[in-house]
Write a structure and sequence with these properties.
Layout lengths: L1 E7 L4 H10 L6 E7 L6 E5 L2 E5 L2 E10 L4 H12 L7 E7 L17
Antiparallel strand pairs: 1-5, 1-6, 2-5, 3-4
Helix pairs in contact: 1-2
Length: about 110
């Protein structure tokens, strides 16, 4: 089992959600986050004054998935979130040791 974490641009959330639904992935957790990578933020002009915005708004997706579906999920997220511009985001894949569905007590792959 794996935990896939993706950091994407907020306006791409609906596209990514549709793409993962099409491949049969039902659940995900979404968190609004702020951060920066190589782009190091940007400057904005507000009422004639220039402001440095160091942290940019992003969306963090977390998806628990079985090992056999990881590659399809990575491809779906990558293709749906890509704009070709700096700041498109990153995808991280972690090993999950155990998953428990609280309602039923199911464990492992069946709990996902």
């Amino acid at each position: 089992m794996k935990l896939v974490t993706a950091i994407i641009k907020p306006f791409k959330l609906d596209d990514v959600r549709e793409a993962i639904s099409e491949i049969g992935i039902d659940g995900l957790t979404v968190t609004e986050v702020k951060g920066f990578g190589r782009q190091k933020g940007h400057t904005e002009l507000y009422r004639g004054a220039e402001y440095q915005v160091d942290f940019l708004p992003k969306v963090k997706l977390e998806i628990a998935i079985t090992d056999d579906n990881v590659e399809r999920l990575l491809e779906a997220i990558s293709s749906a979130a890509q704009t070709g511009k700096i700041g498109d985001g990153k995808i991280f894949v972690y090993d999950l040791e155990q998953v428990v569905r609280i309602r039923t007590g199911e464990t492992g792959d069946s709990a996902i």
